[in-house]
Predict the structure of Pimeloyl-ACP methyl ester carboxylesterase.
Amino acid sequence: MTTFGASAHAVRKVVELDGIELAIERFGPEGAPAVLLIAGGAQSMDWWTPEFCNALGAGELQVIRYDHRDTGQSSTSPPGRPDYTGDDLAADPLRVLDALSIEKAHLIGLSMGGGIAQNIGVLSPDRVRSLTLVETSPAGGNHDELPPPNPAIIATWELPGPEIDWADQAAVINYRVEVERPYAGSLGFDEEVVRALATLEVRRSRNMESAMTNHFIAESGAAVDPAEIRVPTLILHSAADPMFPLPHGEALAEAIPGARLVRLEGVGHEIPPPAVWDVVMPELHRHLHRT
């Protein structure tokens, strides 16, 4: 275990487990109930900002964020050749908890991270205190009856991407910003904030080409049925999500017994921004402390 950064409010470490390295950062009092944040596809821990983590923990919870494989300071594979599967990504949160000697945690997952949280909720419920699923969709199900992404999102998959000089840090930062732009909601795209996060991520990542590629071509993991989830579940979803429109969140709420859906206003396919924390944080605190 190698500590590579620490401050008065957080401790960051790289831990080696099962032959891979995962970068972890913990906020709040050690030994308090744990909340593990699971980011979306191609996202490092940086998108869960320290401000979000501190507001969530409020001095009473330990909040943990980590870099997925191929992001930040965690292990990387060559671009286009991920040496892991969706099952490996879904097992990594449990590796993080094991590294920190945490038996059970609240899991909060965004998008792909929400799918990972569902997987753990079904297959390893003994490790889960509660789930919070943010702007995500039912894992492992048939989505044919759910609305597709916004045409602007689909276009980014169908059109050839720009030629990127991955050695040109400024060009990579610009590209990272533009990747996020179509995912904004009706609150608008805060370019200043996104550029600051992209700059932080690019400067500390081992291989941004791998980060922006490999999650989306890795072999899928085992399918699970969210209807089998039996832990308390909160769903945060916005009608303005251009990737997973609101019926995706409604389908989750209908499938998971006892789940509660909180509809957000104006949020895109993103971690809830400060503009809605007056709604999000009380809901999260109520959910986490209740369980």
